[in-house]
Design a protein that fits this description.
GO terms for molecular function: GTP binding; GTPase activity; metal ion binding. This protein is α/β, with parallel strands linked by helices and 207 residues long. Helices cover 39% and strands 21% of the residues.
């Protein structure tokens, strides 16, 4: 049977050990908070739109999975999270068929970055693409969103280059809007991450 002094010593040892554990937990939480502040992931909500068949869904899953997927025209939306350079991009890929374009506005709220995908090989509809882009940029909910244009399908022989797409879309007429155009090929992935680099830098500059 333990003596009173042994019980006191054991209780003291247990209490001391508990204090050490609690102290370590608090210290661990403090370091976790510190590292989260220094290195924690930032989040960015991205809306990706464009006319139908521009390559939006192919781009989304090339970024997400690193491979080409078989796609069908998007009715509604696809949404995926893409992790890149300590930033978590939530990318909403919204269908581009003319009958569902009026629904785009339902995705505008809280959007920080707008990716507008253009089929650089489709010269007949570049004017239509410009109209849709300018209509969106006039929306109040997108007034602070940065604009990244993907001049897609650069692998096709008759594709317009980035400078020509810039001119056709009237990007140089934009005022009070951060924008960037990147030549891309969704199937190979060329240019996609350069575009994300620009978006990431824009987000960092705002914080």
């Amino acid at each position: 049977m333990q003596s009173m002094s042994d019980r006191i010593n054991n209780f003291t040892s247990f209490s001391y050990g508990k204090s050490v554990i609690l102290g370590e937990l608090r210290m661990g939480n403090w370091f976790a908070t510190l590292f989260k502040g220094l290195f924690g992931k930032k989040e960015m909500r991205i809306l990706m739109v464009g006319l139908d068949a521009a390559g939006k869904t192919t781009i989304l899953y090339k970024l997400k999975l690193g491979e080409i997927v078989t796609t069908i025209p998007t009715i509604g939306f696809n949404v995926e999270t893409v992790e890149y350079k300590n930033i978590s991009f939530t990318v909403w890929d919204v269908g581009g068929q003319d009958k569902i374009r009026p629904l785009w506005r339902h995705y505008f709220q809280n959007t920080q970055g707008l990716i507008f995908v253009v089929d650089s090989n489709d010269r007949e509809r570049i004017g239509e693409a410009r109209e849709e882009l300018m209509r969106m940029l006039a929306e109040d909910e997108l007034r602070d969103a940065v604009l990244l244009v993907f001049a897609n399908k650069q692998d096709l022989p008759n594709a317009m280059n980035a400078a020509e797409v810039t001119d056709k879309l009237g990007l140089h007429t934009l005022r009070n809007r951060s924008w960037y155009i990147q030549a891309t090929c969704a199937t190979s992935g060329d240019g996609l991450y350069e575009g994300l680099d620009w978006l990431a830098n824009q987000l960092k500059n705002r914080n």
